[in-house]
Design brief:
By secondary structure, this protein is mainly beta. It is built from 1 helix and 15 strands, in the order ββββαβββββββββββ. The strands form 4 sheets. Strands 1, 2, 3, 4, 5, 11, 12 and 15 form an 8-stranded antiparallel beta sheet that branches. The termini are far apart.
């Protein structure tokens, strides 16, 4: 016999603007404020509901989804630089004029982090199969948000619950770092004749370093950033049409 006892939901506010600001500038921006809520504990919230952490309370794992990103925003633009674009000097117009710059900026808030209880005597998950426990929380969790200490337990806000009991720290109670991605491109077409043309494109990409983590962490004294993506790269491209 089975019973449907769990639900997930998503609520969001989405806004977008798209404008031809002027003849040589196109701008687009969008923003989403949302909340995703589900009880999935594996696959970072994208898999089916398998085991629940507390078999005596199916709501123990209700909380922010592993996919939850409270704030997502992006801005992109394309700008035809007017400098010397209409110059009467053919050499200056074909070399210095007619450049185009474009960019995309993406900003995403941090993903939820679930803190489990590990390495503690009397932990109920040591003798209760397929269960996971979390610590008790007294006060607020410190979040220095530095590389060496993203969240801190220096003042023992996270403590082991009484032996044989489940901790009261909510599911996915803390947030990891957000990410911002900046891309900038500079483009120029060179027309040599009606049958020959070439293009040059420079792309600049920049990423904000972020914590790489597993879906759960065991109540540490300090959770630190352990790795980060490649922060910057430049790409040069040339194309031709004969």
């Amino acid at each position: 016999m089975s019973e449907d006892v769990q639900n997930s939901h998503y609520n969001g506010l989405q806004m977008e603007i798209h404008s031809q600001v002027r003849r040589d500038l196109t701008l687009q921006a969008a923003y989403t404020y949302s909340k995703a809520f589900d009880p999935a504990t594996s696959g970072n919230g994208v898999s089916d509901l398998n085991n629940i952490s507390n078999p005596y309370s199916h709501v123990y794992d209700n909380g922010p989804s592993g996919l939850d990103r409270a704030n997502i925003a992006f801005v992109n633009f394309v700008y035809d630089i007017p400098f010397l674009k209409d110059s009467s000097n053919r050499m200056l117009k074909s070399t210095v004029g007619g450049w185009e710059v474009s960019g995309i900026v993406t900003l995403v808030s941090g993903e939820p982090l679930n803190i489990n209880l590990g390495g503690v005597g009397g932990n109920v998950s040591n003798f209760l199969p397929n269960s996971n426990n979390r610590p008790d929380v007294s006060g607020s969790i410190q979040a220095p948000h530095t590389v060496n200490s993203w969240i801190s337990n220096a003042n023992t806000e996270l403590v082991a619950p009484a032996p044989g009991t489940f901790g009261d720290l909510p599911f996915n109670a803390v947030r990891g770092p957000g990410r911002d991605n900046w891309n900038l491109a500079l483009f120029k077409s060179f027309l040599f004749s009606s049958r020959a043309a070439a293009g040059w494109n420079s792309v600049r990409n920049s990423l904000t370093p972020s914590i790489t983590r597993s879906s759960t962490t065991s109540a540490p004294r300090s959770q630190r950033a352990t790795s980060a993506p490649s922060p910057r790269r430049t790409i040069l491209e040339k194309s031709s049409l004969d």
